[in-house]
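Narrative progress, year one. The postdoctoral researcher (J.K.) led the effort to move from monomer predictions toward full complexes, under supervision of the PI. The following entry was the first complex the group processed end to end, covering 1040 residues in total.
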Amino acid sequence: MKERDMVHPTDRELSRRSFLKGTVLAGAGVGAMGALAACAPSGAKDDLASTGVAADSVTWDKETDIVVVGFGGAGSAAAIEARKAGAEVVILEASSVGGGSTALNGGLIYLGGTPLQKEHGIEDSAENFLNYMMQMAGPSANVDALKLIAEQSEDIYNWCLEQGIDFSGEVLEAHLPDGEEGICLGYTGNELSREAQKVATPAPRGHVAQPEATGMGFFRPLKAAVEGSGAEVLYEAVATSLITDENGRVIGVCADYDGGSKNVKANKAVILAGGGFTSNEEKVRDHLPYKANPGWPVTNPNEDGSCIQMAQKIGADLKGMSETQIGFSVYTINDRACEGILVDENGLRFTAEDEYGAFIGKRIVQRGEHAYLIVGNNLKSIMDEAEQTPVAEGATIQELAAAISVDADSLAHTVATYNDMAEGGIDFQFGKEPKHVVALNEAPFYAYDASAENTYYMTQGGLRVDLDLHVIDSEGAVIPGLYAAGLCSNLIFGQYFGSGSSMLWCFFSGRAAGTNAAAE
Amino acid sequence: MKERDMVHPTDRELSRRSFLKGTVLAGAGVGAMGALAACAPSGAKDDLASTGVAADSVTWDKETDIVVVGFGGAGSAAAIEARKAGAEVVILEASSVGGGSTALNGGLIYLGGTPLQKEHGIEDSAENFLNYMMQMAGPSANVDALKLIAEQSEDIYNWCLEQGIDFSGEVLEAHLPDGEEGICLGYTGNELSREAQKVATPAPRGHVAQPEATGMGFFRPLKAAVEGSGAEVLYEAVATSLITDENGRVIGVCADYDGGSKNVKANKAVILAGGGFTSNEEKVRDHLPYKANPGWPVTNPNEDGSCIQMAQKIGADLKGMSETQIGFSVYTINDRACEGILVDENGLRFTAEDEYGAFIGKRIVQRGEHAYLIVGNNLKSIMDEAEQTPVAEGATIQELAAAISVDADSLAHTVATYNDMAEGGIDFQFGKEPKHVVALNEAPFYAYDASAENTYYMTQGGLRVDLDLHVIDSEGAVIPGLYAAGLCSNLIFGQYFGSGSSMLWCFFSGRAAGTNAAAE
């Protein structure tokens, strides 16, 4: 499973992380006043805070039009568009290489109604895409934002091509949980579910960045484009606080680089694009509202919520902090694994087994600690091939139930009902695709662990932004001079609608923030 | 249903609300700078913000030791304890009468291991109470906070008696969803559920404030105690912003009263106790992570999130903003209604029907828009007596299913399994109490609407506080001079464990904030 690897940074990254974290924590650990003092503009008197200061009272170490914090997908898009509009840009990047969580992504961007779909004869449109997103995202989602995203989907696709991102390959007419070499399009969300098909014609929308078919398929060309644009990138530069003037306008960033704390002036605006808070475990626990905790974070170590915290410090509002992609990858093992049934601690099914993994994962943690995939002997070899090891085995369903501490009568009734459904080939409970509704009647039976601890998570909540990507304060007003893009910002607040949605959000929000900041 | 009435303020309250909202919104509507200007300390130059100012540069209209914002349960507890410790106190209360959401509560406080339980021969203890809370609250809950609350449960009970709160009456050995006259104790949470009984001996913990058996059973004596304490209460006084000095310390509150904007100096501290954000629909939608939106807010109109917003404006962090009590009152109709089955849109059971309404409500909105209580003709008269009107009727389960757009095969299988369970008297799916597991086999069958729109909600998330009730900023540091108590604060972040939990939190947090603020 490719994603799991993301949480195991290489030794080199780890030591970088320790170094950087040391720096950041030293600032935070001494408390509010200590933090302010550490970020006091150089040369200013000791008790001068970095908020509410006259611009001419600060000793600036560097000056530009736009400071972008974070050199991942969103930061790249912002820098490219700001440069295109003629603004000077400095990017502050905590790592020594850039890439952020974009470089770790599965190589997918979720787009609907694109020329690529048309070329391959796939019926889709901005409207069809919007209908799908609206249903998946749920009732709290910002419809205006979804509309804009659907309308811009084609533009964003074309923009990707302009940056040199390559979507060549064949269409996969099946679930595509992660980018695959040679594939250009696949079903990476819940398009084929019974619920989705009520409102939108299913279309593969996961566009794969080749030839890597990983996040590097995006970041490699983006990095080249940023470098070619004339934007200046400072690596190993950790932003620590925002500097505001007497009117509350953001006028710069205090950052640690070149061995010291520096003040970087932004004559137009600051764009925060440093990612979510997936790697900040305390923050995650402060906001996740589930019955069980999800398993492992999928993140880059610098995605520690610091962009969110810096803006909160000057009054920014938060939105959708509980919105989290919680993934589960049963269906990724092999399509035929979906012939089994997923049951909770009570021995009950709770989902169509072929639904989008991020929806299944959320259902698991909402219901409790434990869940199991139950299969008959007919699927054992498939599971073996996928290197899956059962946690229990039973000659009968009752025996298997006892082995996993699930009520035997309950599981037996669940299986009996499922086998009744298999006879008609119709999953009348959850609408699993008929080809996967296969009787569970070949002993021995096996249980595979699908528990909460085996899910993975990525945060989606963050700074409240408006349609122009301005950061909004707690009273609903724009914080002048401040934009946010990518996973540190939240405009939509709705359930993650398909793998590649984050990349879509990064490019949508980054492009707009860059353009708008340049126009200040 | 008593709670439903809470959302229909009297005309008098409505006009108060319109008046007050008009004031508040006028400030917010003009944007950040406008809001700052409106709250500029009187006599100060126009462009001076109310943050980061020298105390002696402000013209103070009033001065005291401690300013408490909000005169509900938490504000009362804070004021009483601060006065007891010798501090001067001014309470700013938006309404003309006080009471907040405390006055609207069901007349319950949730406590474990109290002398009252002992008097009535009920076996419970701080430890047993803690075990229950830990399991119910879930894996993200702050265990240190729960421990403190369990330990202080007896103290809080005794404190209630000192304030003149009256818990006389008889024990009800059944679910007690709301205070009842003549009853002193009842099961107001999920104590009797299969899950809870694994970790804690069930005990009735909902203590009823008599003789009103409503929130006035708390607020009437508290109001008298506050008035008797020498605290000054300013009614129709709406706090609009916090005033901080050059070191970031909170030194006062800007408030609208007596026809103008006034600066009230707090020599020791400000305690925010103005309630959650239940009546702020935009904020609620910004944070609720469910598949369907819950129905109606249970709130007082001033519970608009303004305390949370004021503190955010000076950098306060948020915690558990998605934590919301989402109630459903099927089991409140009549215990026998639990003999029916609750099913979702897919025709599947999803809960023991006799569980705590706030857990059932959350499960409903997690699963989708629609849910139904299905009963046979044997229960029709019970439902009639409770003035419940079915949304559909069918001579067979299949006919009923069709009438509510639920798959007929699915519902028929669910009922068949349930009837199998009724034969053995054991709900092996969810562990409903055996006396409620009664076969559903007497036609005609009826469906009652248990959909998301019929749930009610109250927000629980708010300002991040520490065990001393200091408000914490985005970097984890204490904001000096600022405390929060009651529903605008969040320390625990866990599922609401029983009706009366909010009252417990208000008294626990209010008392501690008052004592700690007085010691500054």
